[in-house]
């Protein structure tokens, strides 16, 4: 748990520094060129600061959980405060933006230090297990092949296998889509879209199995499935619109567009990380 909090503190610092850079860029250049692109980076950086609030109530409860919510909501406030101000929807002097940013950065730091002190007293055990040794991995495979593994172990193996399939398909959908639009051109892009829909259907099917293998609660299965699939489809749509419509047949490569699109893959990557951690934890415990 302390490791997650340390990661949160790092990304919180990155989030606020990025906001200050954004304010400075807009002050110097207005909403033009690099500043216009930078305007959306806080929406990406905040996605990396959800590690604590994602913990269940069983793992993180009481005051620490309340503080984690306050911590995240503070970042959400400054995110939208800056966005509305820098978009000229609300007129606020730049010096005030810096001042408010510093105040909320200090609030976040205070809250996170407070959380760290509370966690040190609670002495919660980190639930993430380490990687399996070669011997442990071989034993796991033997048990699984010979149908000697427990139900929990079987589900963890199944979920991580389908996680691997989904990761491969994401790479194929992203890189394959970009290359295919360049190869087939405007006239034949319908072929690319047809292939994409086929691979996407396979991906959605495998993802459903992956999530059912990991989660037990039906409502949570449905919620995670919808969240991960919608965000991934949005990310893919951005990529395909950029390279299949806007820049098709051109040598232009929109790095920011791809970066923004890939940010929508984060929920899926986080689910996969949780599955990976559960796999190691489950099978580490088995060999204790």
Put the structure in a nutshell.
With 288 residues, this protein is mainly α.
Describe this structure in words.
- The protein is mainly alpha-helical and 288 residues long.
- The chain has two domains: 2-122; 134-286.
- The protein has helices at residues 2-29, 33-38, 41-45, 62-86, 94-122, 134-145, 151-184, 189-214, 218-246, 255-263, 266-286.
- The protein is flat, with a radius of gyration of 22 Å.
- Keywords: Membrane, Transmembrane, Transmembrane helix.
- The chain crosses the membrane at residues 92-111, 160-184, 190-209, 230-247, 253-269.
What would the principal axes of the Cα set say about the shape? flat
First-to-last CA distance: 21 Å
Number of strands: 0
Estimate nothing, just give the exact number of structural domains: 2
Helical content, roughly?
over 70%
Radius of gyration: 22 Å
H/E element order = HHHHHHHHHHH
What is the overall pLDDT average?
Answer: 78
β content, as a range? under 5%
Transmembrane segments: 92-111, 160-184, 190-209, 230-247, 253-269
Keywords: Membrane, Transmembrane, Transmembrane helix
């Amino acid at each position: 748990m302390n490791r997650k909090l340390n990661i949160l503190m790092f990304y919180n610092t990155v989030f606020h520094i990025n906001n200050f850079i954004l304010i400075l860029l807009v002050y110097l250049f207005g909403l033009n060129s690099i500043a216009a692109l930078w305007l959306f980076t806080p929406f990406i950086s905040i996605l990396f600061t959800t590690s604590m609030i994602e913990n269940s109530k069983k793992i993180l409860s009481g005051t620490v959980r309340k503080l984690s919510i306050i911590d995240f909501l503070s970042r959400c406030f400054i995110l939208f405060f800056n966005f509305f101000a820098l978009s000229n929807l609300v007129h606020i002097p730049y010096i005030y933006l810096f001042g408010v940013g510093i105040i909320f950065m200090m609030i976040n730091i205070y809250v996170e230090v407070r959380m760290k002190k509370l966690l040190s007293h609670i002495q919660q055990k980190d639930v993430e297990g380490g990687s399996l040794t070669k011997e442990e991995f071989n034993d796991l495979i033997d048990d699984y092949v010979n149908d000697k593994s427990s139900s929990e172990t079987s589900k963890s193996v199944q979920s991580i296998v389908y996680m691997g399939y989904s990761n491969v398909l994401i790479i194929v959908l992203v890189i394959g889509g970009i290359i295919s639009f360049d190869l087939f051109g405007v006239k034949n892009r319908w072929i690319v879209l047809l292939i994409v829909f086929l691979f996407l259907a396979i991906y959605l099917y495998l993802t459903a199995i992956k999530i059912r293998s990991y989660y037990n609660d039906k409502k949570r299965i449905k919620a995670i499935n919808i969240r991960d699939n919608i965000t991934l489809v949005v990310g893919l749509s951005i990529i395909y619109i950029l390279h299949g419509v806007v820049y098709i047949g051109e040598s232009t490569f929109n790095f920011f567009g791809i970066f923004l699109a890939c940010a929508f893959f984060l929920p899926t990557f986080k689910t996969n990380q949780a599955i990976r951690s559960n796999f190691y934890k489950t099978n580490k415990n088995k060999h204790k």
